[in-house]
Design a protein that fits this description.
This protein is an alpha+beta fold. It is about 15% helix and about 45% strand.
Length: about 280
């Protein structure tokens, strides 16, 4: 299997191009090759596939073998991959996902290479049943949740995949390994959930740390940054344009008041290419 190792703010992926469809053993491949000790090491395995609706289709298999409906950092990596290799000749690229439909991506290039990528992430889903979360509401806003005797309050948002945004005094020092898996698997979330711990620095600057469903703690989460801005606007903490600082770096997120669409701007990098031996 030929691959390219890529990342968006440290959220890293094994990117594979050339398959005609998702391999039947994709889950097994992800578990094996995403292992950081016995494999290549990554948060997920990304397949760039043909699409009847867009320029390409993206399928993302998490490091635990489960499939993610959407991933903002992976979308940027896919855009860079197909632009840099001239698989798609335009700076405007259509990428199909299973959770968010076809997304429009705009590449900002320098010397023929994609440096920054702006993604139309679509409209946020706020209705509880569609996120999904068992709590009724549209939106599901500032709801109590208890795990292991500790009570938090969360706001639920879907960006094609489910998110649970929780406000804390110091996001950088939250014990992700304790609270992340307990919240991810809470009965409130029938399809599990991505968990974002967020600190409001100002109305245009948010700090966020993430526990990703199926991957654990990662350095960045694009859909999580989008969900965090939406939740922060709904809770009155932030304006509609803000920088979201993650452990791996910053993303600029916009929630357009007219179109209701969320836009994410950030970098994508290719690290190296190789070939597996089995």
């Amino acid at each position: 299997m030929e691959f390219t190792k890529m990342n968006g703010l440290g959220n890293d992926f094994i990117v594979v191009y050339g398959e005609s469809s998702l391999p039947a053993n994709a889950a097994e491949l992800a578990i094996r090759h995403c292992n950081r000790y016995f494999g290549i090491g990554a948060d997920g395995l990304v397949f760039i596939l043909p699409s009847a609706r867009a320029d390409v289709m993206m399928r993302i298999i998490n490091s635990d073998g489960s499939e993610a409906e959407q991933c903002g950092n992976a979308v940027r990596c896919v855009a860079k991959y197909v632009y840099d290799r001239q698989i798609v000749g335009s700076t405007d690229i259509q990428i199909e996902t299973i959770g968010a439909g076809v997304q429009t991506v705009t590449v900002q290039a320098e010397d023929g290479k994609a440096r920054t990528v702006r993604v139309d992430m679509g409209e946020p889903i706020l209705e509880g049943e569609r996120i999904p979360v068992t709590v009724q509401g549209n939106p599901v806003l500032d709801e109590p949740i208890e795990v292991n005797g500790q009570q938090f309050r969360f706001t639920a948002v879907s960006m094609g995949n489910p998110h649970c945004v929780i406000y804390v005094e110091d996001a950088a020092n939250v014990d992700l390994h304790t609270w992340g898996p307990l919240l991810e698997n809470h009965p409130f979330f029938p399809r599990k959930v991505n968990v974002e711990f967020t600190t409001v620095r100002s109305r245009d600057h948010l700090d966020m740390r993430v526990w990703e469903r199926g991957a654990g703690p990662t350095l960045a989460c694009g859909t999580g940054a989008c969900a965090t801005l939406v939740a922060s606007v709904l809770n009155g903490h932030a304006d509609r344009n803000a920088t979201v600082s993650l452990k791996g770096g910053d993303l600029y997120i916009e929630w357009d008041e007219v179109s209701n669409r969320v836009y994410m701007t950030g970098p994508a990098e290719a690290v190296y290419s190789g070939q597996t031996l089995d």
